[in-house]
Amino acid sequence: MDQIIAKAGVLVEAIPYIRTFYGKTFVIKYGGNAMINESLKQGVMQDIVLMKFLGVNPVVIHGGGPEITQMLNRVGKKAQFVQGLRVTDAETMEIVQMVLVGKLNKEIVAKLNLIGGKAVGLSGQDANLIRAKKTQPTMPADFQGEIPDVGFVGEVTGIDTTIIDQLIANNYIPVISSIGVGEDGVSYNINADTAAGELAAALRAEKLIMLTDVEGIFENYEDKSSLISALQVEHAYEMINRGQIEGGMIPKVQACITALNHGVNRTHIIDGRLMHSMLLEILTDQGIGTMVVQ
Ligand SMILES: Nc1ncnc2c1ncn2[C@@H]1O[C@H](COP(=O)(O)OP(=O)(O)O)[C@@H](O)[C@H]1O
Ligand SMILES: CC(=O)N[C@@H](CCC(=O)OP(=O)(O)O)C(=O)O
């Protein structure tokens, strides 16, 4: 009996959160390293659909870096990165589209729909949702020589939220691949964290949630007791400059900063390997992972 009452207690604890978030938009970045197994994927999908049924408007933007690399290996191409950006020649761009738009986007949409969501898959090209131009990697201050050409890698120049607004208004869950379209109609490969930050900013979302493969941001990555629960933007910059935040975590933190600068209320980096981490973050008093704050 006590156990059943405890279950009801969990629901009651959620009331103030549901009331606060009702009708608000959450941008959820679902990354390749958090897509590690079927039961976890299923957990993430359940969280998203439950959120929708509770009145939140989830907008999903996904990556899939590890799957792109696997597919490149299968066709005998070696993945190459410069400052975290995948060097993307024309053939790689085709594979990026095949994996992100053709495979992963459809998989996520199918899983959401199977459990009762009304998900619609889009790439940044659809309805000119994500406009982009060719970008260059940002090299370290002490770098000398010519900046390497990373090919069809794009930076976001604008986001047209019309299609997303319409889908939300009609109760759909938009699921977006991080591909952008240039003025010339050319497709660009955009880092999914960067695209998520820009999307949350353009939608003036209530929250940006980045699911990843660590508990959050550690003050010292080697010391697993040094998890930071609230990270100030200023301290985040210091940590990046000192090399305490590095690699794939840099674009995540930058995405949070972009979102915060454009009025997004809360940005979170949480562990996608933890079952129902999103629900724990949103609907309980505990809060998990790292919240990046102004
Ligand atoms: N200070 C830090 N705290 C936590 N993770 C960090 C930190 N600095 C770098 N990282 C790295 O960032 C990684 C997450 O980025 P990434 O692998 O690109 O994730 P995803 O595929 O989910 O987008 C972590 O696995 C970790 O290796
Ligand atoms: C330019 C660039 O690097 N694009 C990324 C896009 C996918 C991505 O960001 O996936 P994750 O979120 O799983 O890392 C790539 O090609 O891997």
Automatic annotation (TrEMBL):
Chief subcellular location: cytoplasm
Keyword line: Amino-acid biosynthesis, Arginine biosynthesis, ATP-binding, Cytoplasm, Kinase, Nucleotide-binding, Transferase
Pfam families xrefs: AA_kinase (PF00696)
Reactions performed catalytically: N-acetyl-L-glutamate + ATP = N-acetyl-L-glutamyl 5-phosphate + ADP
Site location (Transition state stabilizer): 29, 252
Pathway the protein takes part in: Amino-acid biosynthesis; L-arginine biosynthesis; N(2)-acetyl-L-ornithine from L-glutamate: step 2/4
Residues annotated as binding substrate: 64-65, 86, 189
Domain spans labelled Aspartate/glutamate/uridylate kinase: 24-271
Protein name as annotated: Acetylglutamate kinase
Enzyme class: transferase
Compartments in which it is found: Cytoplasm
GO molecular function: acetylglutamate kinase activity; ATP binding
PANTHER family: N-ACETYLGLUTAMATE SYNTHASE, N-ACETYLGLUTAMATE SYNTHASE, MITOCHONDRIAL
The organism of origin for this protein: Hydrogenispora ethanolica
EC number(s) on file: 2.7.2.8
One cellular component term from this protein's GO annotations in UniProt: cytoplasm
InterPro entries: AceGlu_kinase-like_sf, AcgluKinase_fam, ArgB, Asp/Glu/Uridylate_kinase, Glu/AcGlu_kinase, NAGK-C
GO terms, biological process: L-arginine biosynthetic process via ornithine
HAMAP family to which the protein is assigned, alphabetical: ArgB
